[in-house]
Amino acid sequence: MAITPTGPAAAQAATAASMHQVDGFRSARFGMSLQQVRKAIAQDFNAGADAVSEMDNAAEGTRVVLVKLNALEPGPGPAVVSYIFANGTQQLRHVNVVWQSGPAPSEAQRNQYAVAGIQLTRYFRELNWKPEGSVVAVANGPGSILLFAGIDPKNAMVEVVASGIPLSGANGQPAAAPTGPAQLRVSYASTVPAQAAIAPNAVPPGAF
Predict the structure, then answer these.
(1) Would you list the DSSP string of 97-154?
(2) What angle do CA 56, 33, 95 make, to 5 degrees?
(3) pLDDT (tens digit, 9 = 90+) per residue, 159-168?
Protein backbone atom coordinates (compact mmCIF):
# COMPACT_ATOMS: atom_id res chain seq x y z
CA MET A 1 0.00 0.00 0.00
CA ALA A 2 1.36 3.42 -0.95
CA ILE A 3 0.12 6.96 -0.32
CA THR A 4 0.46 9.58 -3.06
CA PRO A 5 0.81 13.32 -2.22
CA THR A 6 -1.97 15.48 -3.67
CA GLY A 7 -3.09 19.10 -3.44
CA PRO A 8 -5.30 21.03 -1.00
CA ALA A 9 -8.45 19.40 0.32
CA ALA A 10 -11.69 20.75 -1.09
CA ALA A 11 -13.00 23.57 1.11
CA GLN A 12 -16.39 23.03 2.71
CA ALA A 13 -18.97 25.78 2.91
CA ALA A 14 -19.70 26.18 6.60
CA THR A 15 -20.49 28.98 8.98
CA ALA A 16 -18.06 29.72 11.80
CA ALA A 17 -20.52 28.30 14.30
CA SER A 18 -20.64 24.93 12.54
CA MET A 19 -16.93 24.63 11.81
CA HIS A 20 -14.88 22.11 13.73
CA GLN A 21 -13.11 23.52 16.80
CA VAL A 22 -9.69 22.16 17.83
CA ASP A 23 -9.96 22.48 21.61
CA GLY A 24 -7.51 19.77 22.71
CA PHE A 25 -7.45 15.97 22.83
CA ARG A 26 -10.36 14.06 24.32
CA SER A 27 -11.12 15.49 27.80
CA ALA A 28 -7.91 17.56 27.95
CA ARG A 29 -8.60 21.10 26.75
CA PHE A 30 -6.22 23.87 25.83
CA GLY A 31 -5.74 26.26 28.74
CA MET A 32 -6.16 23.57 31.40
CA SER A 33 -3.70 23.41 34.29
CA LEU A 34 -1.45 20.42 34.85
CA GLN A 35 -3.71 19.16 37.63
CA GLN A 36 -6.78 19.47 35.42
CA VAL A 37 -5.07 17.56 32.63
CA ARG A 38 -4.06 14.78 35.02
CA LYS A 39 -7.74 14.42 35.94
CA ALA A 40 -8.62 14.32 32.24
CA ILE A 41 -6.00 11.59 31.68
CA ALA A 42 -7.52 9.51 34.47
CA GLN A 43 -10.94 9.99 32.86
CA ASP A 44 -9.80 9.14 29.33
CA PHE A 45 -7.42 6.22 29.91
CA ASN A 46 -7.16 3.26 32.21
CA ALA A 47 -3.48 4.01 32.79
CA GLY A 48 -1.69 3.07 36.00
CA ALA A 49 0.41 5.55 37.94
CA ASP A 50 3.60 4.06 36.49
CA ALA A 51 2.37 4.90 32.97
CA VAL A 52 2.25 8.66 33.67
CA SER A 53 5.37 10.76 34.10
CA GLU A 54 6.47 14.40 33.95
CA MET A 55 9.56 16.08 32.56
CA ASP A 56 10.87 19.54 31.72
CA ASN A 57 12.02 20.46 28.22
CA ALA A 58 14.57 23.16 29.00
CA ALA A 59 15.27 23.83 25.32
CA GLU A 60 11.65 24.75 24.62
CA GLY A 61 10.79 26.06 28.07
CA THR A 62 7.92 23.64 28.55
CA ARG A 63 6.62 21.08 31.03
CA VAL A 64 5.53 17.75 29.57
CA VAL A 65 3.23 15.06 30.95
CA LEU A 66 3.78 11.70 29.22
CA VAL A 67 1.28 8.85 29.14
CA LYS A 68 2.41 5.45 27.86
CA LEU A 69 -0.46 3.29 26.59
CA ASN A 70 -0.35 -0.37 25.63
CA ALA A 71 -2.80 0.32 22.81
CA LEU A 72 -4.77 3.22 21.33
CA GLU A 73 -7.03 2.81 18.33
CA PRO A 74 -6.72 3.15 15.43
CA GLY A 75 -2.93 3.04 15.61
CA PRO A 76 -1.09 -0.28 15.73
CA GLY A 77 0.46 -1.19 19.05
CA PRO A 78 1.54 1.04 21.95
CA ALA A 79 1.22 4.81 21.91
CA VAL A 80 2.69 7.74 23.85
CA VAL A 81 0.59 10.84 24.50
CA SER A 82 2.51 14.02 25.37
CA TYR A 83 0.70 16.94 26.98
CA ILE A 84 2.82 20.09 26.68
CA PHE A 85 2.47 23.10 28.98
CA ALA A 86 4.00 26.55 28.57
CA ASN A 87 6.28 27.26 31.54
CA GLY A 88 5.07 30.84 31.77
CA THR A 89 1.37 30.11 32.08
CA GLN A 90 1.47 26.41 33.08
CA GLN A 91 -1.47 25.90 30.74
CA LEU A 92 -1.92 23.14 28.17
CA ARG A 93 -1.00 24.37 24.70
CA HIS A 94 -0.03 21.28 22.66
CA VAL A 95 -0.72 17.52 22.57
CA ASN A 96 1.13 14.85 20.57
CA VAL A 97 -0.14 11.30 20.09
CA VAL A 98 2.61 9.04 18.70
CA TRP A 99 2.70 5.41 17.62
CA GLN A 100 6.12 4.08 16.68
CA SER A 101 7.37 0.68 15.61
CA GLY A 102 10.64 -0.99 16.42
CA PRO A 103 13.77 -0.03 14.47
CA ALA A 104 13.22 -2.45 11.56
CA PRO A 105 9.50 -3.17 11.00
CA SER A 106 8.34 -5.59 8.33
CA GLU A 107 6.48 -4.41 5.22
CA ALA A 108 3.23 -5.68 6.77
CA GLN A 109 3.87 -3.65 9.92
CA ARG A 110 4.63 -0.52 7.89
CA ASN A 111 1.34 -1.02 6.05
CA GLN A 112 -0.49 -1.12 9.39
CA TYR A 113 0.77 2.39 10.14
CA ALA A 114 -0.27 3.52 6.66
CA VAL A 115 -3.77 2.11 7.12
CA ALA A 116 -4.16 3.79 10.53
CA GLY A 117 -3.00 7.07 8.97
CA ILE A 118 -5.61 6.77 6.23
CA GLN A 119 -8.33 6.09 8.82
CA LEU A 120 -7.37 9.18 10.81
CA THR A 121 -7.18 11.29 7.64
CA ARG A 122 -10.66 10.20 6.62
CA TYR A 123 -11.97 10.97 10.11
CA PHE A 124 -10.59 14.53 10.11
CA ARG A 125 -11.50 15.26 6.49
CA GLU A 126 -15.16 14.56 7.23
CA LEU A 127 -15.27 17.38 9.78
CA ASN A 128 -16.23 20.92 8.77
CA TRP A 129 -13.15 23.10 8.31
CA LYS A 130 -13.03 26.76 7.36
CA PRO A 131 -12.52 27.44 3.63
CA GLU A 132 -8.90 26.83 2.61
CA GLY A 133 -8.32 25.61 6.16
CA SER A 134 -7.24 22.05 5.38
CA VAL A 135 -4.77 20.15 3.24
CA VAL A 136 -4.14 16.45 2.61
CA ALA A 137 -1.23 14.29 1.48
CA VAL A 138 1.63 16.77 1.24
CA ALA A 139 5.21 15.50 0.99
CA ASN A 140 6.90 16.47 4.24
CA GLY A 141 10.51 15.54 3.51
CA PRO A 142 12.27 12.26 2.66
CA GLY A 143 10.17 9.34 3.84
CA SER A 144 7.60 11.55 5.57
CA ILE A 145 4.16 12.78 4.58
CA LEU A 146 1.68 15.24 6.06
CA LEU A 147 -1.48 13.19 5.69
CA PHE A 148 -3.81 15.91 6.95
CA ALA A 149 -3.71 19.36 8.53
CA GLY A 150 -6.68 21.46 9.56
CA ILE A 151 -7.00 24.90 11.13
CA ASP A 152 -10.11 26.06 12.96
CA PRO A 153 -11.55 29.62 13.07
CA LYS A 154 -9.42 30.39 16.18
CA ASN A 155 -6.27 29.25 14.33
CA ALA A 156 -5.86 26.15 16.48
CA MET A 157 -4.55 23.22 14.49
CA VAL A 158 -4.52 19.46 14.14
CA GLU A 159 -2.16 17.52 11.88
CA VAL A 160 -1.51 13.88 11.03
CA VAL A 161 2.03 12.98 9.95
CA ALA A 162 3.42 9.58 8.99
CA SER A 163 6.98 8.46 8.29
CA GLY A 164 8.64 5.16 7.47
CA ILE A 165 5.62 3.99 5.43
CA PRO A 166 5.34 3.10 1.73
CA LEU A 167 4.96 6.23 -0.43
CA SER A 168 4.47 6.93 -4.12
CA GLY A 169 6.34 9.59 -6.04
CA ALA A 170 4.73 12.39 -8.08
CA ASN A 171 4.72 10.11 -11.14
CA GLY A 172 2.78 7.44 -9.28
CA GLN A 173 5.74 5.10 -9.12
CA PRO A 174 6.85 3.72 -5.74
CA ALA A 175 9.27 5.96 -3.91
CA ALA A 176 12.41 4.61 -2.31
CA ALA A 177 11.73 1.82 0.16
CA PRO A 178 11.23 3.26 3.67
CA THR A 179 13.90 2.70 6.27
CA GLY A 180 14.03 3.05 10.04
CA PRO A 181 10.99 2.85 12.29
CA ALA A 182 7.45 3.52 11.11
CA GLN A 183 5.75 6.34 12.97
CA LEU A 184 2.31 7.92 13.01
CA ARG A 185 1.74 11.19 14.87
CA VAL A 186 -1.37 13.26 15.56
CA SER A 187 -0.63 16.72 16.92
CA TYR A 188 -3.01 19.28 18.38
CA ALA A 189 -1.81 22.88 18.83
CA SER A 190 -3.62 25.83 20.38
CA THR A 191 -1.97 28.11 17.80
CA VAL A 192 -0.61 27.38 14.34
CA PRO A 193 3.15 26.72 14.44
CA ALA A 194 5.31 28.94 12.25
CA GLN A 195 6.36 25.93 10.15
CA ALA A 196 2.80 24.71 9.56
CA ALA A 197 1.96 23.50 6.05
CA ILE A 198 -1.05 25.83 5.86
CA ALA A 199 -1.17 29.36 7.14
CA PRO A 200 -3.96 30.78 9.34
CA ASN A 201 -6.64 32.07 6.85
CA ALA A 202 -13.21 3.70 10.95
CA VAL A 203 -12.39 6.21 13.94
CA PRO A 204 -15.22 6.64 16.49
CA PRO A 205 -16.73 10.15 16.77
CA GLY A 206 -14.99 12.11 19.50
CA ALA A 207 -12.09 9.67 19.73
CA PHE A 208 -9.74 12.25 18.24
Answers:
(1) EEEE--SS--HHHHHHHHHHHHHHHHHHHTS---TT-EEEEEE-STTEEEEEEEE-TT
(2) 60
(3) 999 999 988 7
